[in-house]
Sigma-70 family RNA polymerase sigma factor (Candidatus Avacidaminococcus intestinavium), 187 residues
Amino acid sequence: MCNIKGNNEPKPDFAMLVPAAQNGGQRAMLAICSAFRPLILNLLKQSRFAPIRDDAASIVYACIIRCVVNYEGTSFDRFPGYIKKMAYFDLNNALRKETNFIKHVSCIDDAVLDAISGETIEDSWVRSLSELEALKHLPLHYLRILLWYYKFGLTLTEIGERLGVSHQAVSHMKTAALKRLKKELEA
């Protein structure tokens, strides 16, 4: 895994890198993360992880760091296999959570649809099926922002804290999501 065909880089010595990284060595941790870059690129290509493709790399890097910090083994021969197994576990877990989130989104109530579309109650009853379909076509990050804002009542600042961005960025994303939703409704 760490020595790809055509790659002249030497295979990393995990017996030296892991203890150094556990003692706070940033270069050692970076070398370990770099060694697993081919694994990450391979995982990103797999269609089963398409719903979480935007987050997959950060999920795997977080998994690698967590596994290195918590590794208590004395043999490092199977360390790459351990990382690979844990990365698959974390990605499958994230995929399951995302799937559950999508199922939850399909149960959006009429009040949220009214707030998003700005239409009267009578109009929303007529168009409710098309609105649900339009919401299903939105990218997940847009859908999350709209749900957090309209359904769960979070402020732009709270959403920004969850996403790690400013409230202005969330405001722009919300505006873009509403424009995209209107475009989907008109189609």
In short: The mean pLDDT is 79.
